[in-house]
Amino acid sequence: MNTIGTQVRLTTFGESHGIAIGGILDGFPSGVVVDEDFVRSEMRRRRPGQSAVTTARNEADEVQFLSGIFEGRTTGTPIGFVIHNTNNRSNDYDNLRDAFRPSHADYTYSAKYGIRDHRGGGRSSARETAVRVCAGALCKLALAQMGITVQAYTSQVGDIRLEGSYADYNLALAEENIVRCPDAEKAAAMERLILDVKRDGDTIGGIVTCVAKGVPAGIGAPLYNKLSSSLAAAMMTINAAKGFDYGDGFASVTGRGSQQNDIFFDDNGTINTRTNHSGGIQGGISNGQDIYFRVAFKPVATILCEQPTVGVDGRDTIISARGRHDPCVVPRAVPVVEAMAALTILDHCLLSRCTRL
Amino acid sequence: MNTIGTQVRLTTFGESHGIAIGGILDGFPSGVVVDEDFVRSEMRRRRPGQSAVTTARNEADEVQFLSGIFEGRTTGTPIGFVIHNTNNRSNDYDNLRDAFRPSHADYTYSAKYGIRDHRGGGRSSARETAVRVCAGALCKLALAQMGITVQAYTSQVGDIRLEGSYADYNLALAEENIVRCPDAEKAAAMERLILDVKRDGDTIGGIVTCVAKGVPAGIGAPLYNKLSSSLAAAMMTINAAKGFDYGDGFASVTGRGSQQNDIFFDDNGTINTRTNHSGGIQGGISNGQDIYFRVAFKPVATILCEQPTVGVDGRDTIISARGRHDPCVVPRAVPVVEAMAALTILDHCLLSRCTRL
Amino acid sequence: MNTIGTQVRLTTFGESHGIAIGGILDGFPSGVVVDEDFVRSEMRRRRPGQSAVTTARNEADEVQFLSGIFEGRTTGTPIGFVIHNTNNRSNDYDNLRDAFRPSHADYTYSAKYGIRDHRGGGRSSARETAVRVCAGALCKLALAQMGITVQAYTSQVGDIRLEGSYADYNLALAEENIVRCPDAEKAAAMERLILDVKRDGDTIGGIVTCVAKGVPAGIGAPLYNKLSSSLAAAMMTINAAKGFDYGDGFASVTGRGSQQNDIFFDDNGTINTRTNHSGGIQGGISNGQDIYFRVAFKPVATILCEQPTVGVDGRDTIISARGRHDPCVVPRAVPVVEAMAALTILDHCLLSRCTRL
Amino acid sequence: MNTIGTQVRLTTFGESHGIAIGGILDGFPSGVVVDEDFVRSEMRRRRPGQSAVTTARNEADEVQFLSGIFEGRTTGTPIGFVIHNTNNRSNDYDNLRDAFRPSHADYTYSAKYGIRDHRGGGRSSARETAVRVCAGALCKLALAQMGITVQAYTSQVGDIRLEGSYADYNLALAEENIVRCPDAEKAAAMERLILDVKRDGDTIGGIVTCVAKGVPAGIGAPLYNKLSSSLAAAMMTINAAKGFDYGDGFASVTGRGSQQNDIFFDDNGTINTRTNHSGGIQGGISNGQDIYFRVAFKPVATILCEQPTVGVDGRDTIISARGRHDPCVVPRAVPVVEAMAALTILDHCLLSRCTRL
User: Fold this and answer.
1) What is the tens place of the pLDDT at every residue in B237-265?
2) Residues near C321 by beta carbon (within 8 Å), at least 6 away in sequence
3) Could you report the predicted ipTM of this complex, rounded to two decimals?
């Protein structure tokens, strides 16, 4: 299924080396002013070729909106858009026609469909995330009108990690460096690590942390549409994502309830909490505090050396990757995580209008 | 939304202290022999009051099937079932009417709905998971006919953890002790820790690891219905779940691609992998290897001591929990994790029949 | 799929001669006062055995609510409810085990599922509509708080038809007679026709007309969730329904655009129309006028005489119906049509809150 | 919601006078050979400007496929496609900016969204049906491989109607004339009527009948996903559709059960029926007989004369249509009805694979 969302739904299409990728954003509210400069700036944050730590594939990633916007505002009808693939070098991928890259989706697509577009990974390529970023930019514009912001940053690359919580950093600084880490010193170390790994023809993983501020209490829903569940699902659809947690997450398992409970208090007429171990969500519904979560990304599977594998004939063979690849997906995953978060939160915000008579 | 699944859909209802809880399992395939003894044994694995490390609330949790089964076999029509609440002591909860327990869903339900059944947490109580276990038992019966098994176990409580992977243990041993850990020595330590915590009126978290064997290659779907995304979503709907990862998960971020890629080889005519860092899923689709993942559970919020909080009037107050609670939710979460995994995998198995012409 | 609705969703279960039928109404708004007397009165309008023109099967059809209601008001959590089957005479149906009744669903269920509960038609029995009426009663209560009413009546039985439009009658009179027709004279003729047909052991069809008043302009949605499309879908799920039209419907095809266009005019500050050929829906969205539509019901297939057919072995045989059946389904279909309309309109009303930022 | 279908899902976008219209066909099975000539021929059957009885707006309606097809075959990934709008004369519609055309969706879109693209009806224009025909052509190709065909024809225009059933005609003849009626004499009369009406600047309605052959028994599903319900919903999403019935439909209400039951018999080892009043569907599931149904279309609202109406300011005014319009939508609706039927039936055929273990 290539659709995500309940009320606000994004449906995407497109292969890495086809004519174009694109999407339809449906159920988007009418009356949102479309700031195309903002959309372009978001696209640039994800685009390949932006820095030394990303793939050299150079795509302008220009979005063309085809519908749903009239005289600069959304009309409530579906927003169709396309992004043409311009910098294809498909014959870089001829060797993928006959063999399966280890830990890629080549084999599983073949097992499922019996046919696949081998060029650049086809549908399984992270190229599709450009569509998400475009849709996410529109969702951010709508959220901004509601006073909600979503920001992500790189909190770990390999074993270099930020020890503090998101609240310990000025997140605006994340965009000041090419790895998108708000701690300049750690950022420099991360950059060196990525470049080292790249020099080896190898890849490295990392973690993106994301924070949503301004979400009012009462957004989300029990039981199978929990905000936490929707965020997890959305994040785990991103290429190379291997894990998700929110609030104290995996670290919470070693603490005790008495340490981790977030005490409510009367903050001059507003219900507030002393701490935020919960990550802003209790019982699947927002409590008005900041929502924060982490997404783990594995080292991407494409490495620039020979690897044993099997061919489409099922026989042992050797494959060597060509093409242009990211040594670490995390810096470019930051805007993708934000996009998926924006889409998910906007969706829940609208759905929550249906709760009471 | 109280429904989960696409083709096989579970819809549940019921509050902790209402008349009954129950569900409708729809889209379930016809022709499955319903082994009611097996259903009962699964229910016993989750039921409260089963051991010293669980809540003392004693519920028989007898399932009554109302439809969808004829002469011992499923008919393809919806399977309705109820579980009556028999051991209610609702006035244990009178103090919850007027105040919000810290880190519980009391406040967020109020913020969302403007009204709530305060007795025992109402809808947000983990009591609802009995419904999931019943539905999961039926799904396991269907999966068994396809040669697929699902088994979970406790891999961590507090800071006591199994260092090995699931493959290092005889998982059948997990059911031999009350914490459901396949390493007897660690199990004993976990049990001691839980009893210590219980003595303090406190709670502790932990991790459940789950393994599905026998899932053929090609199950799952790009892009927004990835098997990994569906599993994450399903697990994050469980009470107290704070994190999910699969394969090497969060640990993968420190490795390199050259170490983590799973090399394919020709295993006497079958495509196999030398390692399984991927956790049996690549590009959201199964590759025929074992699928394994982890779910992190926080220490549950109900602790047996006084805590500051706010009342429904928004003013500061003090609350002290009464009632009967689990000091550690993990042992009883094991069958719930299995149930949600069985439901998710059966759903994807059926959907995968629609892929090719 | 045994679920209908997008935001407000009804999922039902149950066979004609199983233990119980029931449903889960999910996504229903919180804060609705549940008038149980009203629910009971609606159930009585549909219950069998209510008059000489309906089946003699006598069911009290008592609804037991199991969840989602607290201290008399809905809480926003799923409303589970059951209706026990009390007046089963299953061995009336032993002859259905081995043969397929003509124009019934016996054969198609067998073809689809390979197994069926033959007793009284099992899942395909109109008995399930009791569940719809219960859910519809709750929806009517919610709609009433919004100023919206839904009323249906019998407008045709066999070739006895009301010539006027709904606006020509006092619809309150429909409940004054056992066929539910607001024209007393026609009602008497319809009753005579049904009793004649019954005497022959035969059955007859008819038409139900339904009117919703008070639906504001702007409810519904393009393109594949049109209010007209949702109503058609909902009505065509009712047993024995064969056709649907709205506004001038099938009759509109012989007119000309210049005759049928509904001219807008400024009605003291409100936009109103001179006529209502459109039936209150234009482009799939309500225009503030009365919504009205018709549903055609065939003569039910169960007739009390011998009919040739085939057995489950595929060989020719003879079947003769026993059991207790309706000679004309239309009088009891009236509340079912209302229920499905109420569910559909409430669903669209809530969804329409998500349209604008 | 701009998506239709459960397993095979079509999502569309685009306004009448925007840059392009298009769609994403998702869940389409892999391995279908895409005959682009066939797609083009289907598009020509719907395109405007094809004959004297259709609008003069002349659009080539060339489809560009952007994804999901590789080396001439579908890959199972979403099929994105666009159709550029080339023959826009948007200033024909300037007068629609400030006033609402009677019986059009201008007013209801404004009431719902608070903003609308007034040019040519924007999203509510029948131009969007080109997208459906393209998707429907692909579905027909898949169905053809399963031995299933779908064919529609004009059975009534104004009061000129075919008296016989579909089985009385050679349906191949329907494409021999510009009104798409298989009876040449009636076709000529219909054509004359449409031209008369056109001369008056007026419009006229009609009925399309559609037949699907080769659908095996067991396709469809109880209760809220009946094949009949899905067909009704799909048809009622088409512009100007006012009614739907299947089998004997509305006409069945005057007959008796004893006349209308379709007697099963053993047809040399196949279960067959003597008659087909049911229209090939019993209990919402196909019985292996031909499926047939009718769709009523009103006279389209755009007439070439002055009409009173209200302006966007709510005040009385006069509007006169300009632009190029169909005097009767029925001839061009024929391929649209087929497309929606093909989409619906293919969807159900795939879903039916999930029924049994």
Assistant:
1) 999 999 999 999 999 999 999 999 999 99
2) C101, C302, C303, C304, C305
3) 0.97
Q: Which chains touch A (3 or more CB pairs under 8 A)?
A: B, C, D
Percent of chain C with pLDDT over 90: 88
Kindly report the length of chain C.
357
Q: Where are the alpha helices (DSSP H) in C77-169?
A: 106-113, 129-145
Task: Determine, for residues C22 and B76 on separate chains, whether the beta-carbon distance falls below 8 Å.
Answer: no
Residue of B nearest to A236 (CA): B229
Distance (Å) from the C-alpha of residue D71 to the closest C-alpha of chain C? Answer: 32
Q: Look over chain B and give the mean of its residue pLDDT values, rounded to a whole number.
A: 95
Average pLDDT of every residue of chain D:
95
Q: Kindly state the tokens that stand for C159.
A: 């070739």
CB–CB of D68/D142 below 8 Å? no
d(CA C296, CA C329): 11
Do C134 and C28 touch, CB atoms closer than 8 A? no
> Least CB-CB distance to A66: which of D22, D24, D75?
D22
Amino acid at A1: M
Please state, in angstroms and rounded to a whole number, the distance separating the CA atoms of residues D127 and D125: 5
- C-alpha pair distances (Å), A291 with each of A245, A252, A277, B29, B231: 11, 16, 10, 39, 22
For domain B3-352, which CATH number applies: 3.30.70.260, 3.40.980.10, 3.40.50.300, 3.60.150.10?
A: 3.60.150.10
> What b/e string do you get for D120-149 counting C-beta neighbours within 10 Å, with b at 16 or more?
bbbbbbbbbbbbbbbbbbbbbbbbbeeebb
Q: Pick from C66, D252, A298: which is nearest to B16 by CA? A: C66
Chain C residues close to A350, C-beta within 8 Å: 354
Handedness of CA B329, B332, B338, B343 (dihedral sign): negative
Subunit contact B237:A254, Cβ cutoff 8 A: no
Closest Cα in chain A to D64: A19
Q: How far is A357 from chain C (nearest CA, A)?
A: 5
Instruction: Please enumerate residues of A whose Cβ is less than 8 A from a Cβ of C.
Output: 7, 27, 29-32, 76-77, 142, 145-146, 222, 350-351, 353-357
Chain A residues near any Cβ of chain D (below 8 Å): 1-3, 9, 11-15, 18-24, 26-27, 30-31, 64-68, 70, 73, 75-80, 82, 112-117, 122-123
Chain A residue closest to C77 (CA)?
A: A222
| A8 → chain C, closest CA residue | C354
Mutate one of D146, D349, D357 to test the B interface: name it (highest B CB count within 10 A): D357
User: Which amino acid is present at B210?
Assistant: C
Element of type H or E holding C227: helix C227-235
Res. C171 pLDDT band, cuts 50 70 90 = very high
Report residues of chain D scoring pLDDT below 70. Answer: 88-92, 323
CA distance D259 to C202: 9
What backbone phi and psi angles, to 5 degrees, belong to C229?
A: -70, -40
Instruction: Determine whether the interchain pair B77/D222 forms a contact, defined as Cβ–Cβ distance below 8 Å.
Output: yes
User: CA nearest C354 in A: which residue?
Assistant: A350
pLDDT at C244 over 90: yes
* DSSP annotation string for D164-186: S-GGGS-GGGGGGSTT--SSHHH
CB contact under 8 A, A354 and C29: yes
Residue pair D194/D186 in contact by the 8 Å Cβ criterion = no
How far apart are alpha carbons C272 and B61 in whole angstroms?
58
Cβ atoms A298, B259 nearer than 8 A: no
Q: Is the dihedral of CA B169, B174, B178, B184 positive or negative?
A: negative
- Stretch C166-188: mean pLDDT: 97
d(CA C146, CA C138): 13
Task: Determine whether the interchain pair B3/C9 forms a contact, defined as Cβ–Cβ distance below 8 Å.
Answer: yes
